[in-house]
Amino acid sequence: MISSLKQPASFSHGSYFLTSRTNLVTPGCLPVLPSLRLPRISVVSLSKPLHIGAPPIERKRKELSTSIGCSAYEADRSEPVADARSESARKIKIGIYFATWWSLNVVFNIYNKKVLNAYPYPWLTSTLSLAAGSLIMLVSWALRIAETPKTDLEFWKSLFPVAVAHTIGHVAATVSMSKVAVSFTHIIKSGEPAFSVLVSRFILGETFPPAVYLSLIPIIGGCGLSALTELNFNMIVALNHVVSGYLRLLVDSEGFCLLVCFFMSMSKGFMGAMISNLAFVFRNIFSKKGMKGKSVSGMNYYACLSMLSLVILTPFAIAVEGPQMWAAGFQQAFSDIGPQIVWWMAAQSVFYHLYNQVSYMSLDEISPLTFSIGNTMKRISVIVSSIIIFQTPVQPVNALGAAIAVLGTFLYSQNYPPLCKEVKTGEARKLQLKRVKHGVLESGSRAKSALFTGALKTLIRMRNLHVIALFEPRISGIQADRTIRRIGLPNSYREEANGFSGGIWLLWDDHWHIEILETTSQYIHCRIWV
Q1: Cα–chain-centroid distance for residue 114?
Q2: Which is it for the CA torsion 16, 432, 373, 163, positive or negative?
Q3: Where are the bilayer-spanning segments (predicted)?
Q4: To 5 degrees, how large is the angle CA 49–CA 52–CA 53?
Q5: Helix, strand, coil proportions of the chain in percent (round to 5)?
Q6: Do residues 390 and 115 make contact, with C-beta atoms less than 8 angstroms apart?
Q7: Are residues 371 and 402 in the same domain?
Q8: Is 470 found in the same domain as 410?
Q9: Is residue 89 part of a domain?
Q10: Residue 252 CB: number of other CB atoms within 10 A?
């Protein structure tokens, strides 16, 4: 997407400049933002608005206007055939990512449940998963298969709270799956959006559109219905065992112990999934707050997260379970299953890392909204496949609850605004920007191109600019961080907003003023003046 501006353009040094009259009068209705006196080192006149972007080819110059409208190529309907082919190839690539992501996740859950059934030590199982991923990435970096990340102490400090939350969520989910069916754990984990909204609302003070709150009703209701029916079904099975097996005994100690153990197992399974939901919500919050602008790609970010989580988890795993329990349990599992248990443990560890790695790689190509939808569909594939493979008995009411919960999660992903307020398509509205100073505006998918990056590097070095960027479905946050890293801009701020078809870059210094008047799904209407 390349922005179209109602201004004549002249070209220079890989960028094109919007010319305007120097005696442009500032409209009285527009607020003049306070200016910051920065060094005036420039190759262009500072008395004219400046637009930075990849130059369009053979674009017709349009009439001069005091208002500058920035619109997507979709609005102009002038997208080249090459871009259309590139977009089709990108969609195929994303489809392959999604199919691989879901398949690897299904395989991991199957082997993970097999291991936990034969070797019920979830703390060690969780540790092995993180260890395998760490080893894979260390080998990849050593052999130069993957680019080695450049990190510093500040990066690891920012990553630490994320790793703590990730460790808690990972262990809690594994404990849950060791106690209850895989399908039940994932049904409860589909309620994670409810935790996200509640934490954001009551702890962070964020507000959401009514549609977001309404989408929580089917999520909470579906999870509650599934949990209740699962509990009732297993209670009936346990009570039937007690009554039918020991009718002649007044006090059935074995049956009673079985029932008590069942309730403890169910409570651990349910609470494990709930704790996992809460931990992953805080992981996402810490990640957003602490990792903005960090120079690590999605795959390497997850690798560093796994390594730090492994360091955190290992001493706790030893304290809770310990080598003696692990050795005794392995001997029992080896005698029951045979050498196959080793393959199961290795497979679940490797596939855990692979499915997470692919999910982070897909996040490099898509928006958080599309990623959340893919995550919803992933849960469906896991629930259905686990029911089929493990032949988990499912009551109609249980299946209905699962369907309602997943549907609610999908509706939530459609209505949840990452940082900006959600509006309906085509509806004009004010665009609320934070930390807006002065500057120029760039809109387009070429914001991540090498030409655009080079132009920004030169301009920022010569003009001491600050940057703010809004990103939409075509440009993910990780791609934004990559561009910012290539530019070499340490202090940047990024917003993610729904309703646009491409990214919006805003660059500011002390000589320009801008007011965003309104936006729709196709354009941004703004005024830029000196």
Answers
A1: 29
A2: positive
A3: 94-111, 123-143, 211-236, 256-280, 301-320
A4: 140
A5: 60, 10, 30
A6: no
A7: yes
A8: no
A9: yes
A10: 17
Domain assignment present for residue 70? The answer is no
Looking at the fold, whether 252 and 183 belong to one and the same domain comes out as yes
Which is nearest to 304 in space by CA: 440, 130, 75, 438?
Answer: 130
**For the chain, how long is the longest CA-to-CA vector?**
102
Instruction: Let me know if residue 77 belongs to a domain.
Output: no
For the chain, the domain total comes to: 2
Is the Cβ–Cβ distance between 271 and 98 less than 8 Å? no
Give the list of residues 6+ apart from residue 347 with CB closer than 8 angstroms, or none: 107, 111
Whether 411 and 446 share a structural domain: no
Cα dihedral sign, 99-105-109-115: positive
Phi and psi of 363, rounded to 5°? -65, -25
Tell me if 471 sits within 8 A of 445, measured CB to CB.
no
Q: Are residues 482 and 368 in the same domain?
A: no
- Give the end of a domain, one of 415, 438, 455: 415
What 3-state class would DSSP assign to 79?
coil
Q: What does the block give as tokens for 52?
A: 């930075």
Rounded to an integer, what distance in angstroms lies between the CA atom of residue 324 and that of residue 428? 66
Residues 6+ positions from 61 with CB-CB distance below 8 Å: 8, 9
Q: What is the pLDDT along the chain (530 residues), one digit of tens a residue?
A: 333 333 333 323 332 222 232 333 333 333 333 333 333 333 333 333 333 333 333 333 333 333 333 333 333 334 445 556 666 777 787 778 888 888 898 899 999 999 999 999 999 999 999 999 999 999 999 998 888 888 888 888 888 998 999 999 999 999 988 888 887 787 778 777 778 778 877 777 777 777 777 877 887 777 777 666 555 545 444 445 444 444 444 444 555 555 555 555 556 777 888 888 888 888 877 876 665 555 577 778 888 999 999 999 999 999 999 999 999 999 999 999 889 999 999 999 999 999 888 887 776 666 555 666 667 677 777 877 777 887 777 777 777 877 887 787 777 766 654 433 332 322 223 333 333 333 344 444 444 445 555 555 665 555 555 555 544 444 455 555 666 566 555 555 454 444 444 445 555 555 555 555 555 444 445 555 54
Burial of 57 (0-12, 13-18, 19+ CB in 10 A): exposed
230 and 172 inside one domain: yes
One domain for residues 386 and 252: yes
Which residue range forms the structural domain that includes residue 438? 9-65+424-529
Tokens of 221: 């209701």
User: What's the one-letter identity of residue 364?
Assistant: D
Q: 3-class secondary structure for 203-232?
A: CCCCCCCHHHHHHHHHHHHHHHHHHHHHHH
- In total, the chain counts a number of residues equal to 530
Please indicate, yes or no, if residue 71 is contained in any of the structural domains: no
User: Containing H/E element for 416?
Assistant: none
Q: Of 389, 415, 441, which residue sits at a domain end?
A: 415
Residues 384 and 509 in one domain: no
Tokens standing for residue 22:
């120097």
Structure tokens that stand for 126 in this block? 């969780």
